[in-house]
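hiii, so i know i said id send this last week but things got crazy w the move. better late than never?? heres the sequnce for the chain we talked about at the cafe, plus the structure i predicted for it. fair warning i was half asleep when i ran it
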Amino acid sequence: MVRLMDLNPEQREAVKHRDGPMLILAGAGSGKTRVIVNRIAYLIEQGVNPEHILAVSFTNRAVREMEERVADMVNNRKVAKKLTLSTFHSLGVRILRTDIDLLNYPRQFTIYDPSDQLALIKRVMREKRIDEKRFDPKYFQAEIAKAKNEGQEPKDIRDIMLREIFLAYDDALRTCGAVDFDDLIRLPCLLLKNHDSVRQRWSGRFRQIMIDEYQDTNGVQLQMVRELASIHGNLCVVGDDDQSIYGWRGSDVENIRQFDKHFPGTRVVKLTQNYRCSGNILDAANKVIEQGVGRYHKRLWTEQDNGALVGMAVLADEEGEARFVVDHLQTTHFEEKRKWSEFSIMYRTNAQSRALEELLRNERIPYKMIGGTKFFDRKEIRDLIAYLKVVNQPKDEISLRRIINYPPRGIGTATIDKLSAFAKQRRSTLYDACLHIDDCSTVGKAQRNAINDFTEMIENLKGKVEEGRSLALIAEMLISAVKFQHALFKEYSEVKEAKKRVDNVDALVNSMIQYEGKADKPSLSDYLDRVSLEPSGDNSEEEDEDAVMLITLHGAKGLEYPIVYLVGMEEGFLPYFRIYESDTDIEEERRLCYVGITRAKQKLILSRALQRRRFGRMEDREPSRFLADIPPKLLHPMGIGGKKPAVTEEERDEKFKSFFSEVFGMLEKD
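okay and structure toks below
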């Protein structure tokens, strides 16, 4: 049940809005998820059919949180299950599974992840005799992704070689019965735009649409949203242009800034009360972001106490900075009886973590980093998933090539090349060539027998899927048939490592059991979709672990911690040295700094080094331009740390004196 009186006036206004476009500008820590959940529940209370409500976010974690909170609020799991709460890519899959045949793709398509994409691009390059040493396949991968995210087709590309690779890559995807991650938005857009019946059906179904983190949308996502809202115009988007930090991967801050022009008659509601940060931290954040260009004007405020001043430490070098942070963290942990998980150390680039990790290990302080190898990225899991992909869609050549000789069965590279030539001669897929291998005279008898055994196993498993057998049972049959566990012990000579990988295989089978217990209509195709759509940025693993969090500023978006150390506050790190290309890039770096500051709830400590080692020699470092935006009265000087000064004592004292004389001089003027 919605309790409107528990909301502040702006939140209440946003929740009660029903028809027509609305932009909710939700500042950092302003309770936007609360507003989204309450608005969904309010629409249901007002008689809107839950099947007509669509809410879209960017991560599975955000979607899961929405699902749980909506179910609790409406106090009816059956009603909550009728809602469509989804990521953009999951929504794209839903549309494609229904209508992709209109684009001449099979409905039983496979979703290629970035490593599959790269493998396919490399194959295309080999076929076109383009040397990988001269032309980086990752360049073509990035440029194709960029083009797709901007809604471009191969014919729109000016660069001749890139256009040819793009076209051949798209053709190869279609031949493999596959789409890539970017196609999950691009292809639904083509369907909605070019097939009126598709647009009418989906726009007619979703009559109330909500989009979270709208500042992170790109060109094709904007187009998708426009098409879905085209019939009724009931579109509510939630976001903050001050937190738009993903321009490097295609998001366009102008989507949120131009929303009222894209959707005339927009109602704009600003959520400016912050429930996260103490007063001093929030004041520092406001001062940094106020200097931004072209932003929606909004100043966050809080009813919380001012709290501690923002710490400012100037250190001799990176080792000194790391020593200061770890010492301060350790002291605070013991003196204030804090959990390790209450601390986070944030930085602009992963390379900055080296000295910090080394010291944390030496001091036996538990820590974790976001961005390690995720479960579904582990080799043994990718191998098993590749088998299941081939069972689901035998046209999937990339997966087929991955597992046709794993575990080793005597089908080497030379045999695969002959098999590929045989497929080309037959004008068939690679798997079809496997099925007719006895007609191929160039492949030896032993290899033909191995290929026949392989296809017999795949066909047997396909039959089990068609019979509707349990996915976990099918996986266990596969593991047994290929002697997968035996292969792992053979591949990894260290028993402990092999056992760990066998445990991962068991965990995969268990995940299938859990999936089948929860899914309304479990199927191999749907399970593989869910695996493909589990993004590496969700960071849901080991959330309850008591450990210090080391994380990049980009990875910190959406998170919060009682105590935050923001290290490397220098020109070259923040803003990053590669960013000095345009004012637009600098503005995004400013927003990144703002995001970092607003992750802190109670204490924020900024640090920088006077010198750092670069390319084997020490270089002087200048303070970040964003430090100059923070009034000195909000700063608490915390002194120099580090055991080994990178400069002479006289130089160090002079630099330190100069910095803080400037700070205190400004304090006196104030």
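btw Confidence is low (pLDDT under 50) at residues 536-542, 641-649, 663-670. thought thatd interest u
miss u guys!!
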